[in-house]
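Q: Hi! New to this. If I give you a protein sequence and the SMILES for calcium ion, can you show me the bound structure?
A: Yes, paste them in.
Q: Okay, here:
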Amino acid sequence: MSLQLHAMARQPGMARTKVDEELAVGTILTALSGGGVLSGQEVRYSLVSGTGDADNADFSIVGANLCAARRLNFEAKSVRQFRIRWDWVDSQNSANILSSGERAMTLALANVTTDDEDLDGVPEAEELIAGTNPGDARSVFRVSSLCIEASGAATVRCNVVAGRTYTIQSSTDLKNWIVETDDTATVAASADGTISLIDSDATACRKFYRIAVMQTP
Ligand SMILES: [Ca+2]
Ligand SMILES: [Ca+2]
Ligand SMILES: [Ca+2]
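A: Thanks. Here is the predicted structure of the protein with calcium ion bound:
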């Protein structure tokens, strides 16, 4: 018995202390370990109120696994706090609690860039390339207007951020794209705002345009 009590003196831990954000409800985030419980012994875990329980509602416990009770958003809060109680149960008599204790724990979230936090239709990863703010729906890389001038030139206006380079590309079939190198086809934006990219030769009967942004090396 003295050996068993010594084993349970170690506080429980987690197999992982950092997990991706935005995992589906019910996903196993990490396994809880009993801290050296002898084979054949049972430990029951539960979430309890007390110091360090601020984010208990984010989690559920299934067996010895800590699971997501809701989608956990890194951008809202990157470190979650919860409080665990463990009960070491007599394997011969489950009503007999041999030892128990509580511990406040933390789980860190890792950012993923496939989410669209500001719901502007552009995933975080693409916003990082464009230099726009993934937390602000007003900040988004998008063509704002396209017009054909009397001269036959096509002017494409888009929102830009400082330090990026933009290229106007055209296609007649939406499959094969060429970079327009005439006029102001490639512009390094000097400040956030709007730029106009001009194709001086828009004489084809049908021509499509798109704007590419070059990621800063
Ligand atoms: Ca998120
Ligand atoms: Ca994210
Ligand atoms: Ca945005």
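A: The chain has a mean pLDDT of 84. Let me know if you'd like me to explain how to read the tokens.
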